[in-house]
Amino acid sequence: MDLSLSTETMGDRTIVRVGGEIDVYTAPKLREQLVELVNDGSFHLVVDMEGVDFLDSTGLGVLVGGLKRVRAHEGSLRLVCNQECILKIFRITGLTKVFPIHTSVEEAVAATD
Question: Which helix (DSSP H) or strand (DSSP E) does residue 70 occupy?
Answer without folding.
Answer: helix 57-71
